[in-house]
Design goal:
The chain contains 17 helices and 15 strands. It has 414 residues and is of the alpha/beta class. α1 links the parallel β1 and β2. The structure holds beta-D-galactopyranose.
């Protein structure tokens, strides 16, 4: 834990509301440091700084996709009652954990002042509320179940288009293997859990997937066994694990690999101009489809910002939340981040290409909650799932994985 440090991307000399040149610092904690990720944050930061000349943005982002490292450091800060002024937390079970631990101030005053109840979807507000009290400001909706692919690599392998089922996916992976290209790129360990949630959804179907998170769920079913066997087969086509999601996604955009299953933050990375992104050409260097077997379902997650109890610079944090909640903030952030806005009244013209598809699907699809990104399971449960998948990657023992997942559900489901 001691080795984890904030990247402090140019915010000032000291963190946490200390005066810096007569200004107050607002410490914004996230894990958006990497290529693609940071672009959206910087876009929102600019608006914040324009609107709040008395405040300095202190970037306390901690590197590491999916926030595993950031969340570990955050837990120690919360434990020590030294929270950042505002931190990123996923809507759903993850946020509920912070609420139940008493870490967060409720934000109904802000929702009333800015009339936010009407601008966010009501199901999303439910995921960030307890007993009518609302505890965060959602900035976006991300999609987890996206299959990114390289059209030229598929063509070379004789694969006609994006596979629509797990069976078609396995056939396509085998064809790519025969060409010598990497069939499926993979990143650090969490990206395997990210893949697993798409495979569970694609193999089980939406209703059975969603039922896994209800009280009394049956993780020992034959359906889950089949899904885990599918996962094992799919993983047998994975290339060497890359350091994080970006280098794995890049293998697809560079034509070294055929497929990668990753959230739509990959779109920001592929599409944003060099410096932040790869500046690749949509539909030529990369293309997308719902992950196999999941068409018609949006495996969703939402990044939101909070007001921790005891924030040193509470006014600065509230000013940040106002930008995060605003149409202007969301429309600056999301086209760069590769997500669609949480607000329903955003400027649709800004969401083109992949993001136009995402907006359309979000309004039409069924919903399922992401495991790895905080919607469906709380943090202790997710930690156990990560441990079990990590063990499985070594043992390849499907029965042991299923038992581990069933035990994790029994111990943590509420
Ligand atoms: C998710 C987060 C996304 C993106 C991704 C990769 O957990 O919600 O915004 O940052 O991790 O790091």
């Amino acid at each position: 834990m001691l080795g984890l440090s904030a990247c402090g991307g140019g915010g000032g000399d000291t963190a946490g509301g200390q005066p810096s040149g007569g200004k107050q610092q607002v410490e914004v904690f996230s894990w958006w440091t990497g290529p693609g990720e940071a672009d959206g944050l910087q876009a929102m930061r600019q608006i914040f700084e324009q609107q709040n000349p008395g405040q300095t943005f202190f970037d306390a982002a901690v590197a590491g996709g999916s926030g595993d490292k950031a969340k570990a450091l955050l837990a120690s800060k919360l434990q020590a009652d030294t929270p950042p002024d505002t931190f990123q937390g996923h809507a759903g079970a993850e946020l509920q954990g912070y609420i139940k631990a008493g870490d967060l101030e409720e934000l109904n005053f802000l929702y009333d002042e800015l009339k936010l109840q009407d601008v966010f979807p009501s199901q999303l507000i439910e995921q960030i509320s307890v007993d009518g009290k609302i505890y965060s400001v959602p900035v976006n909706i991300h999609r987890s179940n996206v299959l990114w692919f390289n059209p030229a690599v598929l063509k070379e392998a004789g694969v006609a288009g994006a596979p629509k089922s797990i069976e078609e996916f396995l056939t396509a992976l085998e064809k790519v293997k025969a060409t010598g290209k990497i069939p499926l790129s993979i990143g650090s360990e969490w990206t395997a859990v990210h893949l697993l949630e798409s495979v569970l959804l694609g193999s089980l179907g939406t209703d059975a997937y969603n039922a896994l998170f209800l009280p009394g769920a049956d993780w020992n079913s034959a359906g889950v066994t089949k899904a885990l066997e599918d996962f094992k087969k799919i993983m047998s086509y994975a290339g060497d694990p890359q350091d994080d999601w970006q280098p794995a996604a890049k293998q697809v955009a560079d034509g070294e690999a055929a497929f990668n299953v990753m959230g739509d933050w990959a779109y920001g990375y592929f599409h944003n101009p060099p410096e932040g992104g790869l500046g690749k050409t949509s539909k030529t260097d990369f293309d997308w489809a719902p992950s196999p077997g999941t068409e018609g379902t949006y495996l969703w997650l939402s990044d939101s910002f909070t007001l921790p109890k005891g924030a040193k610079n509470r006014d600065g944090a509230v000013a940040w939340l106002k930008v995060a909640a605003s149409k202007e903030g969301q429309d600056a952030f999301n086209p760069k981040k590769g997500s669609i806005p949480a607000r329903k009244d955003a400027d649709q013209a800004l969401y083109t290409d992949y993001l136009a598809d995402a907006l359309k699907d979000w309004s039409a699809d069924k919903l399922a909650g992401s495991i790895q990104h905080g919607v469906a399971v709380n943090q202790p449960w997710l930690a156990e799932i990560n441990t079990q998948v990590g063990l499985f990657l070594g043992t390849q023992d499907v029965a042991a994985l299923q038992k581990g997942l069933a035990d994790a559900a029994a111990a943590n489901a509420q």
